[in-house]
């Protein structure tokens, strides 16, 4: 029995490794192509050899071009500003909403919770037009606020906080109330310090959402000074031609911040997911 289990484990490991390689090979080729000279990206594409994945000559000219001539640093800064601001206000707003849904009884509470669940099930593309009209009427079009405000309220973030706060023992909150603490003080001094995993989960989720946003920034912020990172990456693919070398290098540069963030907070992210109703 042990030998059979050991053999199954080995075969499963080999199968998963092969499947992983199928997905990793194109990504590795893209990353290595970012360091090739612009004119030799497809020179060794076929047949597949070691030179297909390991360039003979490594160069940083593609990165130098996008950061010096195209000022790729501006979209990176804009995306950081948008993502960081969204996270700060999003954590506050969504945690308060989750706290209210978890601990207070009020008319229509169940209906509100159902509506919250529906919001993150509806495709974003289906609400772009009414959202655009609303943003235009309140005068936020082509501003940082147009990129930040619609993303602050997040149904999935509210759900995660609600599930986390619902598991906090009622006795802890009642003890705070018995000591004369207001609900706001309980929220700030008791619940928020305990909700670290949920906060990290929401932070990672909202950062990824804002960092990868493409459709809404194209619609709501058409000025070059407000260009975000995904729009800058997509700008290398035109109708007439595609600048593959600059596309690969900008895509690689744009993927590093969320990758580093997720790897650094992965342990807390997994813990937060496991404690908010997704076991």
Can you describe this structure?
With about 280 residues, the protein is mostly helical. It folds into two domains: about 1-65, no CATH class; about 70-275, Orthogonal Bundle (MetI-like fold). The protein is built from 14 helices and no strands. It has helices at about 1-35, 50-55, 60-70, 75-105, 110-120, 130-135, 145-150, 155-165, 170-180, 185-195, 195-210, 215-220, 230-235, 245-275. The longest helix is centred in the first third of the chain and has 32 residues, at about 1-35. The protein is globular and about 75 Å long.
Secondary-structure map with pairings?
Elements: H1 2-33, H2 50-53, H3 61-69, H4 73-103, H5 109-119, H6 128-137, H7 144-152, H8 155-166, H9 170-178, H10 183-194, H11 196-211, H12 215-220, H13 229-234, H14 244-274
Write a concise keyword list for the protein shown above.
279 residues; mainly alpha; MetI-like fold; 14 helices; globular
What would you say about this model in short?
The protein is mainly α and 279 residues long. Helices cover 71% and strands 0% of the residues.
* Overall number of structural domains: 2
Tell me the structural class. Answer: mainly alpha
Oligomer: single chain
| Overall pLDDT score | 86
Q: How do the SSEs run, as a string of H and E?
A: HHHHHHHHHHHHHH
| CATH level 4 superfamily of the largest domain | MetI-like
Terminal Cα span? 30 Å
Outline type: globular
Profile the largest sheet: none
Give unreliable regions as ranges.
Answer: none
Strand portion: under 5%
Secondary structure: number of strands: 0
Q: How many H/I helices? A: 14
Task: Report Rg.
Answer: 24 Å
What is CATH's topology name of the largest domain? MetI-like fold
User: Which architecture of the largest domain does the CATH hierarchy give at level 2?
Assistant: Orthogonal Bundle
Helix content: over 70%
CATH class of the largest domain: Mainly Alpha
């Amino acid at each position: 029995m042990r030998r059979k289990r050991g053999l199954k484990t080995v075969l499963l490991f080999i199968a998963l490794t092969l499947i992983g390689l199928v997905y990793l090979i194109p990504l590795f080729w893209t990353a290595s192509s970012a360091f090739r000279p612009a004119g030799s990206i497809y020179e060794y594409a076929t047949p597949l050899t070691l030179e297909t994945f390991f360039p003979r000559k490594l160069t940083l000219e593609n990165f130098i071009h996008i950061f010096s001539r195209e000022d790729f640093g501006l979209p990176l800064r804009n995306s950081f500003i948008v993502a960081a601001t969204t996270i700060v206000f999003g954590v506050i707003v969504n945690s308060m909403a989750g706290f209210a849904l978890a601990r207070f009884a009020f008319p229509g509470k169940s209906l509100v919770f159902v509506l919250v669940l529906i919001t993150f099930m509806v495709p974003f593309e289906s609400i772009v037009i009414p959202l655009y009209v609303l943003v235009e009427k309140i005068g936020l079009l082509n501003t940082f606020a147009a990129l930040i405000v619609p993303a602050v309220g997040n149904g999935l973030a509210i759900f995660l906080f609600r599930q986390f706060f619902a598991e906090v023992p009622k006795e802890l909150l009642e003890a705070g109330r018995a000591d004369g603490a207001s609900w706001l003080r309980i929220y700030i001094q008791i619940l928020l310090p305990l909700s670290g995993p949920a906060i990290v989960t929401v932070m990672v989720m909202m950062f990824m959402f804002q960092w990868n946003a493409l459709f809404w920034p194209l619609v709501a912020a058409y000025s070059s000074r407000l260009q975000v990172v995904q729009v800058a990456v997509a700008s290398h693919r035109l109708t007439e031609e595609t600048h593959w070398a600059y596309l690969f290098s900008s895509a690689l540069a744009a993927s590093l911040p969320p990758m580093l963030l997720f790897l650094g907070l992965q342990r807390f992210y997994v813990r937060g997911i496991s404690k908010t109703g997704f076991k």
